[in-house]
Each structure stands twice: as C-alpha cells, then as structure tokens.
C-alpha cells in the first residue's frame, strides 16, 4: 500500500484520533478490495442515518467523542428509524430516539443535515470527473451515470470513514478503464414517446438493466429524446433495486456516452437485452400487484426524492382537486424550503397533498391507511414497498397516478 | 496458499459451510445468530461461534452493520472463511474490532481447491496476524 504524506500523518495521529481511526478503516477496506493507494475525494454522501442496531450508533458516537470532523463537504441520506425492517422498530420509542440521535450525531461531525436520497438535486452536486465517496444505491448510480462523477458502491461505515479522511481507495469506478460499457440494452420503437411515457420507459429500462446486467455497465440506446434528468434518476433507482447496478450509460444523454463507441471504449460488446413497447408494457405491468380498476388507498410519489422540476410537472394536476385518496410526495428539505417560499407548499396542502421531508414513505410508517393498493410512479417504491410495508401496489406514469387519485381506483391517463 | 486475512484476529471453532452466499442484511438475525433468509438452503441454521465458510458475500452494504451488531451481541460467527474477498463483510468485522475489541477474523482463501479442502474440516483454528496467517485443523 502506497501512503501519501497526509495518509501517514493521519495514521500517526497528527490529524486527531478520529482521523487516525478512520484512515485505518479506509486502508483496511482498500486492502480488502485490492487497491494499492488512496486518492482524494471532493465530497461524500453518507447513508448512515438509518438505525441497524447499537453498533450503528456506537460507530458514529466514537467519532463524535474523539472530536471528529468530516474533511470534505458531506451530505446525509434519509433518516428515520429503520429502512427495510419496519417490523423490528415500529412502536418502540427507545429505538426511535436512537434513530434520531444517529441523525444528530452525524451533524455533530460536520455533515450537512440534508437527509435526502437525492443529494445531486442540492447545492452539493458534484461535477463531471469529480472523485466522490457516495453511498445509497440510487445516488451512486446517478453520480456515476448522469453526472459523470466517480464513486464505487460505498455503504455502511466506509462512507463516513472516507468523509472523515477525504480519501477513497483507488479502484473500480474511480478509474477510467472500469467505466466502459460491457453490454448494450437496446430500446426500439420509442422515438415518439411523450414526456409522461418517457417516465415509464425509463423505469422499465432500469428494472431490465438490473436483472440482465447486474454489475456489468450497460450502454442504453433508444431512450426517447425527451427523456429528462428525472427520468434517468428513476431509471437508475429502478436498476439499483433489481440488481447491483452502480453505473449505466444512456447514449446521447449522459456525459460519458456522447455515442455508443465512446461508451464502450470502441469495443464490440453484446446486446444483453432488446426492449420494444410490448416488453416495456409487460415489465411495468409486472410491477403492479393488483389489476387496473382496483380501489386505491393512497398515491405515493417522490422515490427518489422529488425534484423541483417534478413539482413543476405535478402542479397542473392539482387543478383536479379534491382527490379521492391522499397523495404523498417525498422530497428533501432543501426543496421543501423553496416550495414554502414560493407558495407551492400551500397549494399542495390545499389539494390534499402531504409533502414528506427527511425520510421516505417506502421505508417507514407514514402512510396512514394501507387497506387498499397504493399507486406510484416510482419503480423503486413499487419494487420495495410490498415487502417493506406489506401493501399492494399499482404502478403508473405521473399522469396515471393523478387521474387515479381523482377516481379513487387504478385508471390510466 | 494464496489465502490472506482481510481482518486480523484469532478464532477457533466448528466449521459450517454455507451452500449459498448469505446477505447478512435481510438474511441473518443479529439477535439470534440465525439465518433468516427463507430462500437460503441453510435457513434456520445458527452461525454463532462457528467458523463460517462461504464462497462470497452478497447483498446490501447494510450487511456490514448487521455483522458488526452481531459481533457486539456475541451472536456472530467466530470467523469467516471466504473464497473471494468481500469488502462489506470485512468492514463489519473491522468496525466491531475497532469499537468492541472483539476479533472476528475474515479470511479470503483465494484458491477454490484450498477453500474446499478447508471447508470440509470439522474444526479449525485461525491465527491471522499482520505478519503471518495460520489456519490449522483442531480437535
């Protein structure tokens, strides 16, 4: 292992006891993944605010007690008590307060209290080519694919250790040669799709990508020209739900894929999957656990967290208020502040829309009524919520969900 | 042998070889030490105090937290004998060592033949230090 002078100083304790512990952990991790040196990162996104047990809190408290401070700007992912094991934690106030303390302790280390899974929608968005230490599966895919920043799939403990040292192991997606596509996902017949359809096509492409490519980076061709950044966000989130996807290229849309040859590095790579309208419809139909026409109990939007642009698309649908079922939208507090300031928060509330901040409806007990199906435009929500919340789900585009909210049952726009 | 220690420490115990990779997150209960993944061939098996052989890790990085928590609670395996290196498992054991000074050595054997031979033994003793790694059959 080659150590920089700063690495050695940190190891020797010259940057404090917290940095010494953190750099030791980063170096041990680097050895485990076969890296031979560390490199600087410009920012970190830490997914440590969900409580998995006392060890989660002990880890962070140790750095707090040692006077630790993050060395690079560090955003925090959603908090609340527990993500994927709600059964373990519901109704236990002691564990609820441990979860809250976990969020506060991270802030004491100098992390920004962003509590969002979409840190790329905040002021802390990295730039093309930046080396970053990001955790949370959708954020990782977005950083690599849509921004062209460079991160591996960091996660528990190591994300914070990287933040406390400003260093990451030099391996995997930090390196040029590992960022090329090794497979192609070909979409055929979507040239004329409209903006609403593009959202569904992106989710289907993402789910297919996760299933067929896993860790192999794919170049996606044939996405509609109107595919937005929010659609790519949905694509990445779906892909990281159905498989271990850390990066994709959308040819003509993402920065490292101006054309197919650039995405593949000029190599001839196989077409892993070909999707036409029939396949996309079948994939999306497979997300719903109830048939069209079924009664709804709620609509859930904003997984990953809704952007301001998505709120722009949502607002015209509010003219149809009142709705037959409550509508929940998850977003970050940075977006919420804007909505309050520009008056949209009041309009949303008047229309029966609950804006959920700092957490997400698929990981925690927020939906008050789970007796009927919940409709969502999120592939990630649809993928996880039936398991997490024990709820039936119907998938649709944003327009589908809003006409269904009006009707109180699953209908298509 | 090509084996290397991802996490140092000393351990001895009976051997349990898992037929499929296990995701500690969602697949293992840190309260009981048992495999809770319904689809895992060793569903229900208790891993506490055993040297657990598995080819590789699997699943979410939250597995590191679950393993660290199990080590804290004393429900974890005594050691993990992997075929391929796994950073998530290593991180969980490293953090537990840092926080609680409890060893749960993690070994990446590297060679399939060696790993298969070791994983068929009944008991093992693992002594993984910074300079030397010793894996010996024990009584």
TrEMBL record, chain B:
Alphabetized UniProt keyword annotations: Lyase
Start and end residues of each Phosphomevalonate dehydratase small subunit-like domain: 22-98
GO molecular function: lyase activity
Domain of life: Bacteria
Matching Gene3D superfamilies: Phosphohistidine domain
PANTHER family, A to Z: DUF521 DOMAIN PROTEIN (AFU_ORTHOLOGUE AFUA_6G00490)
Name of the protein described by the UniProt record: Phosphomevalonate dehydratase small subunit-like domain-containing protein
